[in-house]
Amino acid sequence: MSNEERASGLKYKRVLLKLSGEAFAGNGLTISPEVISHMAREISSVHELGVEIGIVIGGGNIFRGVAAATGGMDRSSADYMGMLATTINALALQDALEKAGLETRVQSAIEMRQVAEPYIRRRAMRHFEKNRIVIFAAGTGNPYFTTDTAASLRAMEISADVILKGTKVDGIYDQDPVGNPEAQKYSSVSYMDALNKGLRVMDATAISLCMDNDLPIVVFDMKKSGAIPAISQGQHIGTLVSSGETVLENQK
Q1: Strands 239-242 and 217-221
Q2: CA angle 211, 39, 185 (to 5 degrees)
Q3: Neighbouring C-alpha atoms within 13 Å toward the C-beta of 152
Q4: Which CATH architecture has domain 3-165+195-207?
Q5: What is the pLDDT along the chain (252 residues), one digit of tens a residue?
Q6: Are 51 and 12 in contact (CB under 8 A)?
Q7: Among 26, 165, 187, 212, which lies 20 to 30 A Cα-Cα from 221?
């Protein structure tokens, strides 16, 4: 079966998956083999449907530039260190994906030829044509920009249909669901409400970029098996951020 035939029933045929670095940690390890293997299985299952996948990974499990800058380190130096941390995570995920039988390329916004290709948009698009998964490392390559912004930027550049943001919770809430059992989950959130209410979906630059280009964001629980294939096929999972209305889940 061709890629076109496999992808015919999909709502999203090309996705940008945004993963936090913290999601890679587990059982006291900075990078958990079990977590990485689970992610590889989930990515493999959606790839089998014919979905083209680009991935942006954070580096917070290894080093967080903003925190280091708050402690007195030069912000630019701290952010470059954070970019290197994302590359470590990218290589770990690449290894897990290739062990699962998937062709994968890591492209870095900072040149490091021994471990990754330089980021070149046209080359990335060619990889998608060859049914490869592309992991975008080192953020935008510039300090003062988060990996959320990098995800939005790369999504625009590769003409993704959606950003899928995998988190530790199953969507966006009006309050922190971990500390407040009364927190209510949103079924959908408008870009403007995400910004004005400070819902911490992604940073303001990333959300504004998505709003300007009408690119939807789906926030979901990365630990939930089958979530990515289900979203790609049009099932409502997590919280949708778009130009539509803000709706609490119990108001649907």
Answers
A1: antiparallel
A2: 45
A3: 21
A4: 3-Layer(aba) Sandwich (3.40)
A5: 455 555 568 999 999 999 999 989 988 889 999 999 999 999 999 999 999 999 999 999 999 878 888 888 999 999 999 999 999 999 999 999 999 999 999 999 999 999 999 999 999 999 999 999 999 999 999 999 999 999 999 999 999 999 999 998 899 999 888 888 888 999 999 999 999 999 988 999 999 999 999 999 999 999 899 999 999 999 999 999 999 999 998 765
A6: yes
A7: 212
User: What is the distance between the terminal CA atoms of the chain, rounded to a whole angstrom?
Assistant: 38
Nearest-angstrom CA–CA distance, 53 and 235:
18
Q: What pLDDT sits at residue 1?
A: 47
Q: What are the strands, taking DSSP E only, across 73-204?
A: 104-108, 117-118, 133-137, 162-167, 186-190
pLDDT on residue 3? 53
Structure-block tokens of residue 184: 């209510």
Residues 40, 99 contacting (CB under 8 angstroms): yes
Contacts of 33 by beta carbon, 8 Å cutoff, 6+ apart: none
User: Is this model's pTM higher than 0.85 or not?
Assistant: yes
Length of the chain, in residues: 252
DSSP annotation of 102 reads -
Rounded to 5°, angle at Cα 142 from 139 and 58: 25
Report domain extents, the chain: 3-165+195-207
- Give dist(CA 242, CA 122) in Å, integer: 28
Rounded alpha-carbon distances, angstroms, from residue 15 to 35, 58, 162, 249: 21, 17, 5, 24
